[in-house]
Specification:
The structure holds 2 protein chains of 2 kinds. By secondary structure, chain A is mainly alpha-helical. Helices cover 83% and strands 0% of the residues of chain A. Chain B is of the alpha/beta class. Chain B folds into 2 domains: 143 residues, P-loop containing nucleotide triphosphate hydrolases (Rossmann fold, 3-Layer(aba) Sandwich); 61 residues. The chains are: A mainly alpha, B alpha/beta.
């Protein structure tokens, strides 16, 4: 597995640097614990971390599915309806001027302290990249393909399902890859504003009790979860796209 | 277009069952005429009539082939050849598709995606798809102009053979192509639309036959005359 050597080496170097800084600067463990201490906390509090991870994971997945679904539906609607383009598109663009984080307290006010505001938060943060990437793909369908389909007698609906949507799938994949990274941000922000469960809540709780090793352990789990989510979505998109076009649909870099 | 007339009044009659070439420099509106016949948007206002002798004008009884192959990258050759039926919600006739793919010489590539084909093979696939549509009128918008000389000559011969008996309107800027394939030649330039005589012999003519070369030279001179 050659492609794993790079990431593994980088991780080892980063951990060594981290431990090195802790040794050299001699930081107190309630400011910056070393990786070993964090690993101990991870094992010691495994049950607590696991329980909260599950909550955050559910928020992320639900947010991702609902947000991506809404985004896809919006993109198709925008592409089919000139009226929607006139009225919804400017609103959509303007809505991006509002920092989603600023909405978190309002969402908590409206939806309470349970799962709902976190999921709404993740939905909001996932929705726009998916909608805009997919809409770009739908509008960017080569003119000639649509003309050809029209001459062949295709209805507007079939031009959408058989020409535009397939042509826009690589763009949708780009949007989903972004969404996979954004969704955890939404969930955690939601938890910070008001929650009694979840990794974001656990981090605040640990911070408040100077259990910085536990906070880092929760952060570590969150990061791993995001990376795995991103990798899974990447893998699924690449697999599906390569079957779709006979070539790799993987864009370069991030 | 943009408040400006693309072309003045013109009348174009295309004889049934044979090849008509519409020759002219780039930008005079050849493709626009073709799009009008196909019933496609032209980004302007069209005031006039398009009639087909034996068929209603809508839906236009035409099949359309363009300079770029317009193959769907996510479908293999068979999928592309049969796309018309699926776009209309019909069941494709796979036996007929296989026969047409064989006629254009792509049987071995039938399960390949367009990205893995050469330029000539892609245009063959596009030709098979055009034939699959089985329409009386075939509109060709410079379908051979992006090919190298030898492949172009082969494609012209193949298309002439497989489209025998159909009404073909070929838009081209290449006098040699018109001299080789046309039964009727129209020239569209800044002065408007006028006809020009093709060689006496029936198409398809040899690339290097004296009458083909003579016609090609004559067409070239007409196109080169100052407006």
């Amino acid at each position: 597995m050659k492609r794993w050597t790079g990431p593994i080496a980088a991780t080892v170097v980063a951990l060594a640097l981290w431990q090195g800084i802790v040794w050299i600067a001699d930081t107190p463990h309630f400011i910056l614990p070393g990786p070993f201490r964090v690993a101990q906390a991870l094992v010691r509090e495994a049950a607590l971390i696991g329980e909260n991870t599950l909550v955050t994971l559910v928020e992320i997945l639900l947010g991702l599915v609902l947000g991506a679904g809404l985004g896809v539906a919006t993109a198709i609607h925008l592409s089919l309806s000139p009226t929607a383009r006139t009225f919804i598109l400017p609103v959509l663009v303007f809505s991006q001027a509002i920092p989603v984080f600023a909405l978190a307290p309002v969402l908590t006010l409206w939806f309470g302290y349970g799962l709902a505001p976190k999921i709404v938060m993740a939905v909001l943060i996932v929705y726009f990249p998916v909608a805009s990437a997919f809409y770009d793909g739908l509008s960017g369908t080569p003119r000639g393909l649509i003309d050809l389909a029209r001459v062949m007698g295709a209805s507007r609906g079939r031009i959408m399902t058989r020409v535009q949507i397939p042509a826009a799938l690589p763009s949708l994949a780009t949007g989903l890859r972004l969404a996979a990274v954004y969704a955890p941000i939404g969930a955690v922000i939601g938890e910070w504003v008001g929650a009694s469960k979840g990794l974001g809540y656990l981090m605040l709780y640990a911070n408040g009790r100077s259990k910085i090793d536990l906070m880092f352990a929760a952060l570590f789990v969150l990061a791993i979860m995001t990376v795995l989510l991103r990798a899974t979505i990447d893998l699924v998109c690449t697999k599906l796209l390569s079957r779709w076009t006979g070539e790799t649909g993987r864009p370069n870099g991030f | 277009m943009g408040g400006r007339a693309l072309f003045g009044p013109l009348a174009l009659t295309i004889p049934a069952g044979e090849w008509t070439c519409l020759l002219g420099p780039s930008g005079v509106g050849k493709s626009t005429i073709l799009r009008l016949i196909a019933g496609l948007e032209i980004g302007g206002v069209f005031d006039g009539d398009i009639t087909f002798a034996d068929a209603p004008a809508s839906p236009a009884p035409v099949a359309y082939m363009a300079q770029s192959d317009l193959l769907f990258p996510w479908l293999d050759v068979t999928g592309n050849v049969t796309i018309g039926a699926r776009l209309r919600g019909e069941t494709p006739d796979h036996a007929r598709a296989a026969r047409l793919i064989d006629q254009v010489g792509l049987t071995l590539q039938a399960a390949q995606k367009p990205a893995t084909l050469s330029g000539g093979q892609r245009q063959r696939a596009a030709l098979a798809r055009t034939l699959m549509e089985d329409r009386p009128v075939i509109l060709l918008d410079e379908p051979f102009s992006a090919l190298d000389a030898r492949t172009r000559a082969e494609m012209q011969a193949l298309a002439a053979r497989l489209l025998t008996g159909r009404t073909v309107l070929l838009v081209t800027h290449d006098p040699a192509e018109a001299a080789r394939l046309a039964r009727t030649i129209y020239i569209l330039d800044e002065r408007g639309l006028h006809t020009s005589l093709p060689p006496m012999s029936p198409p398809i003519r040899a690339v290097d036959a004296p009458e083909t070369l003579e016609c090609q030279a004559r067409l070239f001179r007409t196109l080169s005359e100052p407006a």
